[in-house]
Write a structure and sequence with these properties.
Blueprint (H helix, E strand, L loop, with lengths): L22 H15 L7 H10 L3 E2 L4 E2 L4 E2 L5 E3 L4 E2 L4 E3 L4 E3 L4 E2 L4 E3 L1 E2 L9 E2 L2 E3 L4 E2 L4 E2 L4 E2 L4 E2 L4 E2 L8 E2 L22
Parallel strand pairs: 1-4, 2-5, 3-6, 4-7, 5-8, 6-9, 7-12, 8-13, 9-14, 12-15, 13-16, 14-17, 16-18
Antiparallel strand pairs: 10-11
Helix pairs in contact: 1-2
Length: 193
């Protein structure tokens, strides 16, 4: 039987491939993100938006950014007017993320544009994400790179979105159902059968 290979991660391509800014800008952003964006004690949405814009984010008017949000690279974030970004949302945007106007992205949702796509060399592969006007991505969803969520679509809680969602659709993870019994059924007289 042949041995299954292990990738030497020190040789993996893509180290800092998505930065596309000088390292001092990336490090300065990391400090500002911690102090002004991710910080749970910082209550001002408008301050978060101003700091994100200062680092190149395109954010429309009336956007609400709740505490504990994270943005990997603000210069790759584009959000339309009046959108709401919930507490703990993480934009892991190694590629561009486009969020339309009047969009809700609820708490603890993770939007990622990067993956290693099961490649044998662990090289970084990035693809943009687009979330259409009026869409609602509910709590604790995961949106993967290359996905387009259509206008006014609704993604239900805890859903992993790995494919495009049509406009106006309700998109859900598998519906929970009973798949068996944990214990033996009891007889009518209350004893175990």
């Amino acid at each position: 039987m042949s041995e299954v290979p292990v990738i030497d991660l020190s040789q993996a391509p893509g180290e800092r491939a998505a930065w596309d800014r000088p390292s001092w800008v990336v490090y300065l952003w990391a400090v500002c993100e911690l102090l002004f964006v991710t910080n749970p004690w910082q209550i001002s949405s408008s301050l978060r938006v101003r700091v994100l814009r200062a680092f190149g984010a395109e954010i429309g008017s009336g956007v609400v950014f709740r505490p504990r949000t994270r943005v990997k690279f603000p210069w790759k974030l584009h959000i339309g007017d009046r959108s709401w970004i919930g507490e703990g949302v993480w934009f892991h945007n190694q590629d561009h993320i486009y969020v339309g106007h009047d969009v809700v992205i609820s708490q603890e949702t993770f939007v990622t544009t990067g993956s290693h796509a099961h490649r044998r060399d662990m090289a970084l592969v990035t693809r943009p994400v687009r979330i259409g006007d009026g869409a609602w991505v509910t709590s604790r969803c995961m949106i993967l790179g290359g996905v387009n969520i259509g206008q006014s679509a609704l993604v239900t809680p805890l859903t992993v979105v790995a494919e495009n969602v049509p406009s106006g659709a309700i998109f859900s993870a598998g519906v929970p159902k009973v798949t068996g019994q944990r214990f033996k059924q009891t007889s009518e007289d209350g004893g175990a059968s």
